[in-house]
Design brief:
Elements lengths: L3 E6 L2 E7 L5 H12 L6 E7 L3 E4 L29 E4 L12 E4 L20 E7 L1 H8 L3 E4 L2 E5 L4 E7 L1
Antiparallel strand pairs: 1-2, 1-10, 2-7, 3-4, 3-10, 4-6, 5-6, 5-7, 8-9
Length: 166
């Protein structure tokens, strides 16, 4: 049976099922942060309506939290980046994901694994919302701007209050 989580935010609650069977290393990495209460008080720091909401690595004052070592990218699991799925954020380096994740606000199949080339490797989907699509939509609609070098930052912080196993 797959692990279930509850993400409580300042905009409401989302629940998700994690794909322990399809992305075991990614789920174990994510749950390590959950169990450490790492996500409590972090924010969705990058919000693009019609694309995704990204969070889990910054405090409301845009300070980046220290992380554990990166996890291996399991995007070859061929789970598609569809609306409501959770995926790991990363840099252009394939195996660079640590704590930051995003929730797809639209079907983003262009983020799926296409080949082993770094520019086509994709982003690992490791879960899917089972409730809270209305919360996802609400977060995706917030006003955004710049915060230092960061863009698409909500002008009023959208706080991740807690992430817990259900």
């Amino acid at each position: 049976m797959n692990t279930r989580i509850v993400i409580e935010t300042s905009k409401g609650t989302m629940e998700a099922e994690l794909f322990d069977d399809k992305a075991p290393k990614t789920v174990a990495n994510f749950l390590r942060y959950v169990d450490e209460k790492f996500y409590d008080g972090t924010i969705f720091h990058r919000v693009i309506q019609g694309f995704m909401i990204q969070g889990g690595g910054f405090t409301p004052d845009m300070r980046q939290k220290p992380t554990h070592d990166p996890v291996v990218n399991e995007a070859k699991n061929r789970v598609s980046n569809m609306r409501g799925t959770l995926a790991m954020a990363r840099t252009s380096v394939v195996d660079s994901a640590t704590c930051q994740f995003f929730v797809n606000h639209a079907d983003n199949t262009f983020l799926d694994f296409r080949s082993p080339r770094p520019d086509e490797f994709g982003y690992c989907v490791f879960g899917k919302l089972t409730s809270g699509l209305d919360v996802l939509d609400s977060i995706a609609k917030v006003a955004t701007g710049y915060s230092g070098p960061h863009r698409d930052v909500p002008t009023e912080p959208v706080v991740i209050l807690t992430v817990r196993r259900a």
